[in-house]
């Protein structure tokens, strides 16, 4: 099958000293993939003539489409545009349309006077097709050479995204007869990557050439992604769906979701669909679980609040954990997290509550309760379940693992609980 | 001056379909830079033999050091290791040291039985030096060819970081006569990058060739980093220190810290040195501020707890915000955050309290209070100060900006307060 390959080249010193994390490439890869274009390589180079030139030569070699981002800002202008001019054999000319747009932006939107640098932004190589950048002053530029296409875009994320969506993708869809690419992702928990692979070995071998399986392990969860590529959408959809169903059935016992979701998104769906509310009582995670839940838009619908009871006195005052329990059992104990859940349910008045208490390290461990020991409790007015964990990593990772595993325990509890109330 | 160049190659289809954002490369670039190694290119390719092989050829061309991450998990084993074997002309052999470590991990840490796949992780090319991966089963592998060095590392971030810090960087420092690179960083707040640049233009021009100045704007703060490169450590140290002192004096009024610290580390130092305690009352940041503070080891010394009052009823019940205030002023108001501070001081009994309430988006905005509107209050038993902010980004960024600016207001309050009590 004839596949259309794209390379993404990102220009900027900031990427090479690690000052900036490249989120543009990931977003571009997603939309290109959706469009049926296979991204074969991503390359980042500095703001340097030779480095950019060599990258262009190399990627023009291997790809049909080259997407170039960065190097177009008012302070970075000096290299990329002249280089593209020379590379495609043209000269810089003032583009009246772009100039009008830049003038408009400064007069009507920025309310700032234009300076020489801004006018220079309206200069484009006379050998490219100008792509209108509705969100900024630097236009996109479309070049063609030896039946290859190169598109130069500004690096500012929302400017790049606007150009990709409105101009680049539609133009590419016209230009190429592209295959359909379909993805289906599920997430498992509580089973290691290698065991999972062992369990679905035969399934994996049974996959047709058009469908690929990928493992993406993360925080004790493993995401499994099926990718199908072809030209017959219906046929392909049927094929991937039947394989995906097969996979789900095989992994029912460890399946968390059949969507490409984070654990907190799974929780959000469960709470929303059941019209239930949640409160958190966090000791060792120090608010991280509440943060994960509230980082999602609309979370105020189901997350009412939380208490970060870092100090034992706060556990007593705000969650009514008894001094006796703290004295006899300790702050990191089943009895304490049970009382924390009860306290949270009482003070925040929610359907469910989740509580965690543990030792994240590097200090605070003992022989009896080593660093990484965590007690989790989740419950409602009728029942509370608990689980003990032992994580063996450094502080930040222990916090992340505690959060994801606590949310997973909550997930199971909500599901069991919903089922039992239905029956 | 002879510079040592590195290329970073990241292997994984997930990067090419944009399912995962590559944070590894940025981190690696940072530590390589600190070590005096210049990262010249970053390349991402899929889990495909030819793609990896070609990338190796290309980067071996242009760089002295190639760092390869990914493609080493128990399920991905099948390509990278055999390829490296063939590329460097060796064969796979079982490494007893690695096998012992893998066995240990399964018996003592994972408490899971080992299977064939896991044992395969202990197979390494006989032409490489094995680097011990304390955090996982996939070892690092160090190859040398034509006076070039290639290091293969697992893609799991904390495994890669552990290997880089403990094994790779020290070995590279031994191998190459790298220049001394000294960095001195200070952080400013409340002044834009361009104004800052204007203010220190002459200072910047006065810098010797051996010292570079970098602007690292981030969340309304700007980090200024002086980097001195050379071979005479003493001379270089003297030069950068005198310039750094000069810079600090010029920026005294906007200086937050003369260390390369996060805002929460600055707060931690202030609280620790003054033997003071802190409580948080968060609405719109949903526990993120408490998380930032508690992510640091030893934070229980000064952070006693927090209340995430996402729902208005929680603001009333746990922070004693009056229904009248919520009705007349609204949850996002100066009056509300003032009462939140009072409530937090009362219920958590700390020296200082911080409160935030705002609209993080995408929904919930109004003409009067658009998305991004935030009220922050900080105070102690004697005084409360407030500040209104307006952020214009998407939800996650607005949350981060709120946190850092709230902590900065707290920082100023603690300093003013400490001074006034000393006088």
Automatic annotation (TrEMBL), chains A, B:
Cross-referenced Gene3D superfamilies: CinA-like, MoaB/Mog-like domain
InterPro entries registered for this protein in UniProt: CinA (IPR050101), CinA-like_C (IPR036653), CinA_C (IPR008136), CinA_KH (IPR041424), Competence-induced_CinA (IPR008135), MoaB/Mog-like_dom_sf (IPR036425), MoaB/Mog_dom (IPR001453)
Pfam families for this protein: CinA, CinA_KH, MoCF_biosynth
Domain of life of the organism encoding this protein: Bacteria
Residues of the MoaB/Mog domain: 7-175
SMART domains, per database record: MoCF_biosynth (SM00852)
SUPFAM superfamilies recorded: CinA-like (SSF142433), Molybdenum cofactor biosynthesis proteins (SSF53218)
PANTHER family per the UniProt record, alphabetical: NICOTINAMIDE-NUCLEOTIDE AMIDOHYDROLASE PNCC (PTHR13939), NMN AMIDOHYDROLASE-LIKE PROTEIN YFAY (PTHR13939:SF0)
NCBIfam families according to UniProt: cinA_nterm (TIGR00200), PncC_domain (TIGR00199), PRK00549.1 (NF001813)
Record-stated family: Belongs to the CinA family.
The protein's name in its UniProt record: CinA-like protein
